[in-house]
Amino acid sequence: xxxxxxxxxxxxxxxxxxxxxxxxxxxxxxxxxxxxxxxxxxxxxxxxxxxxxxxxxxxxxxxxxxxxxxxxxxxxxxxxxxxxxxxxxxxxxxxxxxxxxxxxxxxxxxxxxxxxxxxxxxxxxxxxxxxxxxxxxxxxxxxxxxxxxxxxxxxxxxxxxxxxxxxxxxxxxxxxxxxxxxxxxxxxxxxxxxxxxxxxxxxxxxxxxxxxxxxxxxxxxxxxxxxxxxxxxxxxxxxxxxxxxxxxxxxxxxxxxxxxxxxxxxxxxxxxxxxxxxxxxxxxxxxxxxxxxxxxxxxxxxxxxxxxxxxxxxxxxxxxxxxxxxxxxxxxxxxxxxxxxxxxxxxxxxxxxxxxxxxxxxxxxxxxxxxxxxxxxxxxxxxxxxxxxxxxxxxxxxxxxxxxxxxxxxxxxxxxxxxxxxxxxxxxxxxx
Length: 432
What we know:
- 73% of the residues lie in helices and 2% in strands.
- The protein starts with 5 loop residues before the first helix and ends in a 10-residue tail after the last helix.
- By secondary structure, it is mainly α.
- Helix 4 packs parallel to helix 12 and helix 16 (391-405) packs antiparallel against helix 17 (411-422).
- Strands 1-2 form a two-stranded antiparallel ribbon.
- It is built from 17 helices and two strands.
- The protein is globular and about 60 Å long.
């Protein structure tokens, strides 16, 4: 496999950032399509190993995977470029839309365009399921792990780290009793990592991460909005296992109820905006930061922009700590039969995780109403009211899935076509 130039890596990473609709499931599939299938810069096993490692980390796993891929191809420089390019397009778009939202509110045309894109996201996630399934579900045991992961998250609402940890334990046990797994040695870093070097790397990048927060604390004091935003999102960066949805309850509790930075309906609007734009779903953090600065006493655009920047930096900068300090050790584990077995089981569990995301997101997009079903476990299972099925959304989603899976259609064209199809909603009776 021929390594790309730094310019080629930058262009491909920016392309991924611009087309990264569909949350982590769609973004992981998109990176596989570009880095593995189209460019052939990274091998299949390398990619899966990197994905498995990133699933174990707190924070946005798709951005971490982009950073890991860049690090594999061009070291720290490549990791920084790939990680930032993955986030930047979506962050700029979310910033602009949040500004319009704060100043002008939503408009019917914009809502209709996002309606079509949101339906297309279902197609992206189904394509991801198709691709991950072909790679991960090679044995009956893999399928069992995937089903158990799905049920654990959807039906029993178990904590995400517990599901991943259990899958890893099952894979470890399987590797002890089964035949030796095929190890992916091609392209792995050959040098053995040093603990001292890893600690120094972690310390240096942690200092980069915390520098804006330390500056706000020193200059503005602990009670200033920028400092409080930095503290909150730095804490969230350490506990966001399982992606954006797992931390939304805590974020709403702190940002809406405790701090009063925005209202609950505004929080929901922010999540919808993040879901329908490229980039990680945790860009909702940037929305929260912006609204906190916009609506603060004496606030406005400048404070909103600084608060949004602080929220984004404290959300995404920690990924560089985990990747640059830990990836060399993760690469070394690729030569371990036990680690390979554990990570293979995590790959199977990822299929169940994506399936759960697809179902929950599909309920939200394809049906206009849902209802809670109380389970004996004490949790409520959110199910759709099938009488409220949205035929247009279903048609757009089905067309997107068919175009991507059956015809390998260009992603840009699919997004544009679905956005334009969403405009048809304006012609429907009762459309806003």
